[in-house]
Specification:
The complex is a heterodimer of chains A (about 140) and B (about 900). Chain A is elongated, with a radius of gyration of 22 Å. Chain A is α+β, with helices and mostly antiparallel strands. Chain A is built from three helices and seven strands. The longest helix of chain A is centred in the first third of the chain and has 23 residues. With about 900 residues, chain B is an alpha+beta fold. Chain B has 21 helices and 22 strands. In chain B, a hairpin with a 4-residue loop joins strand 20 and strand 21. In chain B, helix 6 packs antiparallel against helix 13 and helix 20 crosses helix 21. The two termini of chain B are about 50 Å apart. Classes of the chains: A alpha+beta (about 140), B alpha+beta (about 900). Chains A and B meet through helix 1, strand 1, strand 6, strand 7 and helix 3 of A and helix 14, strand 1, helix 15, helix 17 and strand 2 of B.
Amino acid sequence: MNKAYIIAFIVISLALAFTMWSFSSNLTPYVDIKAARKTNTAVQIRGLILRDSAHPIVRDSARSALRFWIKDQNKEEIEIVYYGAKPDAFDTAPGLAAHGFIRKEGGRDVFVSDSLAVQCPSKYNDQKAVYKQTASAGI
Amino acid sequence: MWLGVAGVAALWVCLISALLTICGYGLSLKRPAYRKPILLARALYAITALAMLSAFALLGIIVYTKTVGGFYRFQYAFEHTSNDLMGFYRLAATWSGQEGSFLLWGSWTALLGFFVFWKAGRYEARVMPFFVTVLAFLAAILIYQSPFAHTPRASIAELAANPGFLPYPPNGQGLHPSLQNYWMTIHPPTIFFGFASLLVPFCYAVAALIWKDYEDWTPRVMPYALLTCLTLGVGLFMGGYWAYETQGWHGFWAWDPVENASFFPWLAITALLHGLVVQKDRGGMARTTTFLGLLGFWLFLVGTFLTRSGALAGNGPDGQMLSIHAFDNIKKGGLVLMVAMLIAYGALGLCLWLWRVRSIPTRKTVGDTLLSRDFAFFLAVILMLVACAVVTFGTTWPLFLSWTHRAPSALKPTFYNRAMLPLSMVGALLMGIVPWLAYRKTSSETFLKKMLVPWFVMLAFGFVMLFLVMGWQRDLQAAAHLDDVAWIEKTHAWISPAVQRVAVMALASLGFLAALSNAMLAFRVFRSRKPLSAGGWVAHVGIGLMMIGIIVSNTFERTKQIDVREGAGPSEAFGYKFDFERFTGKSSPAFPLHPDLDGTNAAEIRVTPPASDMVSGPDGSRTYLTKPRWFVYNMAHASSEDALQRIRWPHINKYWDHDLYVGYADDPWFAYGVVDLTKGQPATAGPYTFFYAGSEPQADTDGARVLVATLAVKGPDGKILTLHPSLRMTPSSDGAGIEFTHVNSAVPQLADENGNPGVVMLNQKKMSASSGQVEVEFSLPQAKGIWVVPLEITYKPWINLVWIGVIVMGIGVLIAMIRRALEARLVADGPLDGGRRAPSLAGQSLAGDDAPITGGERKGSSDSGAGPPRAKRPARRAR
């Protein structure tokens, strides 16, 4: 057997083993908020961003965080504390997925997150053509 | 309207003529002695290619002219351009959509085809039939997914029912502002040229396998493979720089599926290059190189399928979002054809390869000694293939997951970083030592002696880096006072953070070794008689520099959020002071907190750099302005319903050794003066006195409720104004709450020195008409509100090394390409003299070369075996 193939084989198997380990350690399950409360490992939760006056979207300057509320498919609501700048598409995004974990803050649960995946509004793709003269610059 | 008809006709002509071209070339293969079939085939190819190009040109005209008779009659123009789109973007919008980018791919392929058949010589009839099939597929996909579709006409009933209705839309949906960037004009054409050129190695590999010609194809295919490596590689980084400039997350690579889909073909084609070099100069490797030639193009098809089928676009039932820029609007017919394409080329390549693999001659050259250049190249090929497999796996696994109906999970980008770390370390080490290795055999003594200096310099570099990273880590611990941040840090750590840092620094040091060793050799080669042979080494220098840049700019990156408040003095980050200068937006009177549509709007922030920065402005002042953009874009400006999105673009301040990246942490906001009023009691705020006389609900013409307040305001000049700021209440779109709109809040009588009217408005949150109390927010001359700008400041050290590395790599690959193209000329034989075989092609190609190693017969007898790479050695290809 050629030495080259032996070495190649070793390199490939080491790399594959390492990749599989890295893969399994970087896989975070999507769970609902209820399940997120029960675990203390990092998870992903998904839901719709709430934008009404009872659920304000605010910047928490002291913590360098963005605070907002989401509602998951079970209609459960939770506040998310996201450490980072507001993502570009956040304003128009219907929903998002957040990576992080739940902890107590002043007696209630908040979801502390370090990364957000913001859903692009599908409206942009399939908006209905309007056959009417519209003012273009008005806000 | 004839444009659309002509476009569809061009696509049909392209499809039919492509099929005929295949027959033409088939005939000429059957009767190599006759000239006529091949001339016919060429003419047919010219028709095919011109048809594809004219379809692209027609779409370009449609997009550029936008409207027909004042209306957006073409769907593509409606979807990708708009009345206000100007300049070159009017044209660049052509390739901003699904169909347009298919046409761009097809057009580059068509153009490249002329060059391929011109240069193919004896190979013409073997290569071109396969080449043309792609044009046929693309034409067929575009016939299904037509870029020339018309906008549906409004029905008679609709027109009758709505007096204001027009038969066709008068405005288009426009180009997303992040696409209205100068890179839009150059990045897509570059990267699509790279994609199109992947086809050439594929066709040559197919021809080589069918006609069992495993040697001749190498010098011919090499310039094309280099061309792909160059355009795809540079194109990828153009995209990265674009993201860095506009996306605001101070990075340039996110392992996004679309990025990956361009990256894994690049890895395959670069592995092919290294295999070809070994094959050309040492023989053997033909099994590997033919496979890699097939793989590159096929992986591109996989990537195309992933990013265009909607498989990753996040419109699945679980709403998984996987990519920020995947297309997702392909129709079923086009999708079926795309899958057919994927299967057809995959099956063709794989079956051919499996059929021939046993008959491909092998030589036991590689691996007869481990300390040799060929073995290093062989290992490099393996490494790149593994890296390619890792990235492909990471990108495609959500598909497998959805097919097996497992619970969805998200793969963090750290997966790629981790998986790539050991691979890049071995790769960088290989690049570092390969210049000191000779073909066949290097004596370990010579090798160690030659490597002594570079090793020591590298170790010194490594220790300096390690020292820096330790100091940086102390800083970080001091900063990470928040438990949450510490916890998140911990979840990101894998091995202990210290080990991780050492590993990362080791990679930077190995990158340094690679740059150093290759620079030393490149310098020698440049001074020799064959300077063009330095190309590969120069490219390696670029990769080495890039590795250092990537590691340092990410590991030593520091980010801090600050609020810059107007008139409140500077805020500080990393020694830089940031002070509010002004906001350039033309504020609309009722909402000074709203940015407007003007893309040049910015919050201008004055930066005072620390004393250690040796920078001074043009006027000798030490401060300068940084202008992160902030404006509103209507995502749906052709729709009745607005979808306003605030666009936040960072401003990058470049220094020679770092970037100061100024992005927004959030939208700037306007802090109004506030005064609480009780009915019947005057209250003062600054130089103004307010008097609240009460408020009453009214009904608007459309039935909405409006709360109209009556206020009296006495200004510093003693004049009294009566104002009626109002709140209009409408049910919110989801029906769950009430949306408030401020009405009548502008006070033109009290305008500031720039003519901007003052503002007095009711705060809807603290509004209760019955209790007779309101909170009023105001911004009036001499009592103005202030701007608050939340910024995210990032300090990115050594980031310029990344871009310098890319440029150096590009130059290296370009040099190598020129050299290989000159070499390929030597093997080109007369195009029409049938099967005449140039005597000992490979030998001839090298006769004009200098390589002492491989004579025409590849005996390798002339290899000296001495360690030092001599200047006259031909350059090996670079990643």
